[in-house]
Structure formats: structure tokens, C-alpha cells
Amino acid sequence: MGRRKIAEPFLLLLLVVSSVLQIRASDLLFYESFDEPFDGRWIASEKEDYKGIWQHSKSDGHEDYGLLVSEKARKYAIVKELDEPAILKDGTVVLQFEVRLQNGLECGGAYLKYLRPQEAGWVPKGFDNESPYSIMFGPDKCGSTNKVHFIFQHKNPKTGKYVEHHLKYPPSVPSDKLSHVYTAILKPDNELRILIDGEEKKKANFLSGDDFEPALTPPKTIPDPDDKKPADWDERAKIPDPDAVKPDDWDEDAPMEIEDEEAVKPEGWLDDEPEEIYDPEATKPEDWDDEEDGEWEPPKIDNPKCEILAGCGEWKRPMKRNPAYKGKWHAPLIDNPNYKGIWKPQNIDNPEYFELETPNFDPIAAIGIEIWTMQDGILFDNILITSDEKVAKSYREETWKPKYEVEKEKQKAEDAAAGFSDKISGFQKKIFNVLYKIADIPYLKAYKTEINNLIEKGETQPNVTIGVLVSILVVLLTVIFKILFGGSKPKASAAPTTGSKNDGATKVEDVKSSEEKEENEKEDEAGPRPRRSRRETSKVHFCRDLFLVVTVGPAWGSNDMASCYWARQRGLSCHWRRQITSDPFIDCPQLSVLQDRLFPFTMVGRKMGASFLLLLIASSLVQIWATDPLFYDSFDEPFEGRWVVTEKEDYKGIWKHAKSEGHEDYGLLVSEQAKKYAIVKELDEPAILKDGTVVLQFEVRLQNGLECGGAYLKYLRPQEAGWTAKGFDNESPYSIMFGPDKCGSTNKVHFILQHKNPKTGKYVEHHLKYPPSVPSDKLSHVYTAILKPDNELIILIDGEEKKKANFFSGDDFEPALVPPKTIPDPDDKKPEDWDERAKIPDPDAVKPDDWDEDAPMEIVDEEAVKPEGWLDDEPEEIDDPEATKPEDWDDEEDGEWEAPKIDNPKCEEAPGCGEWKKPLKRNPAYKGKWHAPLIDNPNYKGIWKPQEIDNPEYFELEKPDFEPIAAIGIEIWTMQDGILFDNILIATDEKVAESYRLEAWKPKYESEKEKQKAEEAASASSDGLSGIQKQVFDVLYKIADIPFLEPYKIKIIDVIEKAEKQPNLTIGILVSILVVVVTVIFRVLFGGKKPKAPAAPVNNAGAAESEVPENSEEKEESEKEEASAPQESEKEEASAPRPRRSRRET
């Protein structure tokens, strides 16, 4: 028993000592829990752009505090300087923090920036997106961006420039509203591991080009920028067979659809009734201004008479598929005998190449959060830097895990409560899908539009609709039940007379029934063309006869072909009917005018003119026919009825038909900030992308700039059965997505294509690598994508080539269109004894005896003396005496009001206030942690890679198998309003696209550019003054950095910062001082040369005698002062107080 009593204290002591040593070894480099208010420790940026307010707030449902993003649609910036920089070169380093997206994250960032040491003169209040960092890590989500960033800035030792290296294929951001913890582990063997909630999501190697873009080590060789492709180099693997001949029975001119000549107008069709009428219940809005908004017209509604009867308006025969249609003939492809492969320039030595064994990370001097976000409610917590993975894990278990479990249970309860509602919603969706399939039954084709209209109306009241359907079903089942089981009852016999009468009735009914059946079948065959409203664009029917009568939509009634062509170019309907004329100059006054101007003299001249003009017009029409666009919309007319706005709940942005600022030209306008928008236009006929050149072009004007949002188009492929334009959203599959997108680190003109893998049947998204950037001004810009038949893609901005790529090149698209033949074996594991470390610490090295690892970097300056006049009892800050409590302040909601703090004016006159502490100075004995020198690793085997196996998803392809474009959609999330889309075009000829640029875009652009130049010229004098001010203050800050002014640097900077608020007054004072100084110097240099009047000898001598001793005394005294000045300066520097720190400063 006695031995046990003695042993227990020793065991406990050993346990405590080992624990203390373990804690000592795994000490934190930095930790912030935000349990206490952050003011004074974290500094909010005072840059003008960053207006977001940070708050110290509880996490929803917890008593735990964090750092809260409190307002929507704001820029935020805050920074915390570390007491000692965290070194990233030695050993393992773990970066970890928590984020809870309490209101979700539609568009914004929630990442941290680990700042490297900043340049001299930088202050935390000046933290912004230009402040350089070592690492940026954390979630970011907006538009097509959804990733947990890991980006590091690394210095190229050859050029001295910092290069940004992005982690490839980073993990996605969790989509819920729970707390999540993000961990980045940097290992000494160059390995990076990304964890989310403690689970590994990504492993990478810093030196691997497969993991980072661009690779940390530049390539040894680069393509020679001066090498050009030879003119005779042929990259086409396949070419059309030159010996192939089009079959004689192949009619390229046969239209896809023809009028059904057997169709008959249904009985009851109302020719004189309009399809739409003004809404009789509509009233003019109270805020409608006729001057600004134009004359008010009530909105149109479907004519109720037309819904009851067969239809209204002019009846036209429906179209049916032409059995003779074969489309354009193409010669079959054969192997190109001149094929030389994809041309690449020769490689030359890379002048920026360097070798590296491990990344040369800059130390972390501060941690900053600098984000632009659409959401509020983002809560940061438990920010940690440590050198031990176990420490990071223990913090996850203790601080994050309990909160996460509580939130997860709460979410499960909410999901369970909403489960019944979700099931009902799913049941409703299935029923309406069945109804849409019924509408697709072939024999209901003639009435499909009416049926779809009824179903769409039914969808607005799903419960009522399903109730009616159930009632009908019950009635039908009752009738069937009665027929099946009710008729077995024996009937009473009837008189023969009655029976014969009944038989006669039956015969009459049978005859009548057969007649009705024939009539119904006839009507089915001649089903009416679906009723078209004025909001719909009818198909354009072309006719190559020379003289035509033009009938154009409700807005057009012109009879000349020039007007019709003009209308077609602007997306209006134009139906051309054949009409042969004897004398075109009589029937067409426009041609008559041309005739009189061209051939005004003789009758012979008139006849020659007619023939010449006919040839001219014929050749023009042939050219127009050959180069007509597949689709064009100028938005000159309102878009309603042609473009369909989605009715999905998330898309609340309102589209408007509006003029471009400063022009009479209309476009499609994004009218509100911070909204989701979706609108779609279904094409009359799908645009085929496989044959020949295809040009996609549209204009966008960012009238209010673009901080965060997209302005791209989606070219949709044919959708699944049951899809309607009103259901268009970000899930609607597309062939191509093209256009500008900008938010945070994203600034690119996207070109993304979705391509079907023929092996798996899955669609894969292929992104253009290194796309061009978005122009940063507010002018109209036109974006053009040219898809060539030789697999080449050309991106133009404003008609200027910005990017050229090849669809089959892995250097141009990511992932490559054709998958690799082999892939790393996913089952192959790295052997445990595989050593990837090129260098290892020298095992024989020994730490020198005089190396003190525990010596601190800075020590207290014991020789320092408190300055005279230091006010110990005065606080550094006081309540602002002029501040008043805001009228809308609510003590219950906002807490007890406190006046804001201001600097104590007494402290500005004195050397300082508050408790004086001796300043710190650098410890001469400090050497830091000792590390053994690195030597070559004798067991080094290189970077391990798994063995390659055949790729089951590999396929070969000669041309991309693009899906046709069935519709054009705009589906964006944007922070800005004022985005104006215009002149959307799909064509098969580059010249057509160029002509539209020159005619539709160029005049507007030139006008806007001239206006911009005039505005810049008007503000040139102001801008020049602003530039001078900036240069003056830059000089003043450099003066503050002069070494002998170091003790007064903080005060000097404070004075300069105050002066910056009144730059004109400050510069005026400086100029006045400069004038006085120059005047004094001038007087000293030139003022003494003037001859003096002679004076009495006595006075002169006396003066001379009296001046000499005085001058000598002054000289001796000045020499004494100069000799003692350095000593005084050193003494003052030694006794200089630690710079006064306010509660807002770290």
C-alpha cells in the first residue's frame, strides 16, 4: 500500500510532464475563436470600396460567436497582423477555419487570404484586393464557379515576379447552410491535402503540373512565338471526296415542309375575329407617365371567343413534312492525302525556367478576409494555423463537431416535416408529365397547342386540376362498373312494336355515327395550323422568283422586296408569294425611281436599263439567299411573345424592352440588381452545327459596369419531352455557352461546350482554356465565336481576334474533347516504402551548443525611458461628445447604445497617453528554431504515379458531334443592372456576321467612344490635379520612411493621413512654405552683393571687434551642438516609447 502511494504521484507527474511537452511541441502558431469582440485585434479596411459592416455575432441556434458578414451585396475587407510571421518552409503547416453560410451562397466568396510581408508604408487600414498574399484558401461560388480555392503566389527566382498558381479540379462547396470546417495541410514532402469537415477531398503535389495551373516549375522549352505556320500546311484529317458527284435525284432546293393541300378549314373558324383583344379589366397604372413611358395601351389577352371555337384570324393550311426533302448534299469525307497533322511551332529554351526541390513560400505575416458577396449571414470562426495535424483535428472535434451535429439534427427534423409536402409536389409533377405525354399523341397533333394551353393553365392551380381529374376518373369508373355489372339484371319483355321502333332508331344512329366518324377523320387529317398570336414569329418562307409581293407581320404591309429583306434581317416574319409581272417598272415604283436615275435619256436606254437592272437584282437576290442568317433578333420590336420568361421560382429578375443609353436602338435589358434572370427563344428550325462554318454573335453593353455577374448566352440543344420554355433554368442542357462572366478572380469570356461521350452516353462539359478577358468599360461590345469545319474555333471581340483554338487539342480545352487512351489505375496504391523526398535533413548534423531555440525574437529595451509629458491617467480614446443616439436605434434589438470613440485630443499634444510600456527591440541572441541542413536523399525514388490502364471511356472522333441549337437562352445571376443584350445572330457566313457588326454595332460603339473621350477631356484638368496630389502624398510618405525620422514615423503618418482628407489646403500650405524657403535662399545668395554706404571707422572697428568674438563663440557652440547631436539622437531612439496603440489597432 505504501509503495502504491509513492508510485501514484510519480506516475501522475510523468503524465503531466509528457502532456506539457506534447503541448509545447505542438504549440499553435495562431488561433482566433472570436469569443471576444474583434475590435482592436482585427482592423477593418478604410478603403472606399469596402462598405460592408463586420459584426461580432452568435451563430444561429448556438451560443458561439463568430465574425459576421452583416449586409448583402457589399465588399468586405478585414485583417489581423500576426505577432510573429508563420514560416511555411519548415515542416508541416496546417491552415484551418470554419465558415457557416447561414443564408446559403448564391454568388460570393468566403475564403481567407494569408498575406505575405507587405511593402514599407503599408497599414492594415489600407488592406484591399491588391494586398499581396502567400496563399488564398476557401470556398467561392458564383455562376459556373463552385470551388474551394487553393491559390498560392510564388516568386520566380529568374524574373523576380510573383506568379499565381491555382489548384486544378478543386473540391466543390457544400450546398447546405450548416457549419463546415476547411483544412489545408502543407507537408514538407511537397504534398497538399484539402479536407472538408475532416474528410479528405483532394490530394495534390506542389511540383506536379497535373495538380497546379500553371505548374510551379515553368517548362524547359516553350513554343517559339516568332514561328509561323506554313501557308501550305494542311491540318484537315478528312476532306470531301473531290470525285464524288451529287445524285441526279437529290433536290437541295426541296423545302423541309410543304403546305398540306388536303387540309380543310374547320367549321366554325372565325376569320374576322382577332386572336387577341385588349384586356377589358386592365386599368392604367397610377404611376404611368405618358411623357416618359409613352402612350399607355392595355395589355393583350387571348380572345375568349377563339378558345370556345375552332380558331380565329386568317386560316392558313398547316405544314407537313415534305417527302422529297433531303437537305443540302455533302460529298462523303475521305482521308486527306496532304494531311500533316495539327501544326505546332518549334520549341525554344524558356528564359524563365528554373529548378526547385520545394516551394519557396513567403511567410504569413497577416490573415485577411477580402470578399465581394451577394449574401449576408456568412459567419467565420475558429481560424487556426498550426504545425501539427493532431492539434487541428482536436480543434475540429471540440469546436466544430458539436455545432455541426446539432445543426444536422435540426435540418433532419425540418426535412421530415416538409416530407409530406414534397411527396404531394412530386405526385403533381408526375400527373402533369402524363398530361403532356397525352398531348404528344399523334392523332391529337391538330389540337396540341390548345391542349398544352389548358395544361399550362391547370399547372397554375394544381390541386383544383387534380381534383377535377379524379372526379372525372370516378365518373368513368362508375359508368364502366354500371356497364359491366349493372347490365346482368334481366329485362322485362317489350312489345314487338316498340322493339321495331328501337331497331329503326338504332339504324339511324349507326348511320349518323359513321358519318360523324368520317367527318372527324377528315378533320383530323386537315387539322388547323396551331393558332398563332401576334407575339409569335412565323417561319420565313423564301421564294427565288424575281418579283414578289411582300406581306410582313402585323407591323408590315410593304410590297417591295427591299423592305421584306430589311424586315427579315431584323427577325420579323416575311411571307413571300409568287407573282409574275410583265413590266417590273410599272408594278414597282421603287424600281421605277432606280430606272429614271440610272437610264434617264432614251427609250433604248430604258430597255437596256431594265435588262441590266434585272441582272443586278437577280445576282443580289442569289447572294442574299446564300448568306441569309439562320437566326437574328434586333429587339427593335418588344420581345414579349417571341422570347419566353421562365416561371421558375428562383428567377425573379424583370426583363425590359429598353433603349441603349444615348441611342434610339432597343435591346433586352436586365433591369434590377442582385437577381437571377432567365429567358429563352425557341428557334423555328434547329441550327445544325456539324456542316460547314457556323457563326454565333451578339452584343452586350454593361451600362453600369460589371463587378459580379454574367452576360453570356446558352445555345440549348433539343430538350427532353415535356420540357417547356417556361421551365428554362440552369439545369436545361445546352450545346454551347458563350459570353462574358466576371466575379472575384473570374474574368473571362466563356466558351463551354457540352459533348456526348459515345461510349458512356454522358454529356461532358469542355471549357476553353485561357479565354480572353472581359472589356472593363461601359461601351457596347460585340462577341463572336466562329466554328470552322476544320475543327478550329476563333473568338472575336469587336471584330478583333482574341483567341484561336482547336476543338481536338488538349492544350485548348479542359478536359480534352477526346479522353486519354490510358488513365491511372484507381486501384493502384503507392508502396509504403516509396520515398518522394528529394532532400532530407542530414541525420549526422548536430545542433551547435550556442544555438538557443528558446531565445525570443524581441526583448524589452531596458534602457528606454518614459518621455517627459507622458499622460498616464489620460485614456487614448474618449466617447465622441458630439455623437447622438440615432432616432431608429432600438435598445432591445440593437443593444444598449454607446457613443463611438474618437482619439483623445489631449494625447495629440502630448508624447502619449495611457500606461507606458518599455518598447521592444530585436534580441541579438535570437536564432530561431534550428534545422539540420538538407542533403540528397539516398532512398529518393521520384514522384510516385500509379500504373496506366486502358481508359474504358476512350473514343476516337474526326469532328465534334455537336448537338443542334434548338433554342437560345440567357440564364444569369448578376449583381449589376443595366446589362443590355442586342443583335443576337446565328449565321453560316463570316461576312454576314461582319456586315451586321459594321451596320448594327459599329455606329453605336463609335458614338459611345466619342462621348467617353469628351467626358475624359472635360475631367482631364481635375484628373491631372488628382494625379499631382497623389504624387505629393507619395513623396511625403517616402519622407516619413527616412531612417532618422523613425521615432516620429507614426505621428508623421497620422498627420499625412489627416492632410489627405483636405488635399488642396495641404498642398497650398506646402507650396507657401516652399515659396518662403526659396525666397529666403534667394535673399541669402543674392541679397548680400548690394554695396553698403561707408560707415565711421570707430563704429566699423567696434562692430568688427564685437562681431568676431560673438561669431567665434557661436561657431564653437554650434560645433558642440553638432558633436552632441548624434549622441542625443541615439539616446532619444533608445528611449523612444512604443508607438501608442489605440483599441482599433493591433
What are the defining features of this structure?
transmembrane helix, glycoprotein, 25% strand, alpha+beta, 52 strands, repeat, 18 helices, disordered N terminus, 1146 residues, nine-stranded antiparallel beta sheet, disordered C terminus, lectin
Residue runs with pLDDT of under 50 for 5 or more positions: 1-7, 487-610, 617-627, 1089-1115, 1120-1146
Distance between the termini: 57 Å
Largest sheet: 9 strands, antiparallel
Percent helix, as a range, is 25-40%
Account of the 3D structure:
The protein has 1146 residues and is α+β, with helices and mostly antiparallel strands. It is built from 18 helices and 52 strands. The strands form 13 sheets. Strands 2, 5, 7, 8, 9, 10, 11, 15 and 24 form a nine-stranded antiparallel β-sheet that branches. Strands 29, 32, 34, 35, 36, 37, 38, 42 and 51 form a nine-stranded antiparallel β-sheet that branches. Strands 1, 3, 4, 6, 12, 13, 14 and 25 form an eight-stranded antiparallel β-sheet that branches. A hairpin with a 4-residue loop joins β39 (780-787) and β40 (792-797). It starts with a helix and ends in a 12-residue tail after the last helix. This is Calnexin. Disulfide bonds join 107-142. Belongs to the calreticulin family. It is found in: Endoplasmic reticulum membrane.
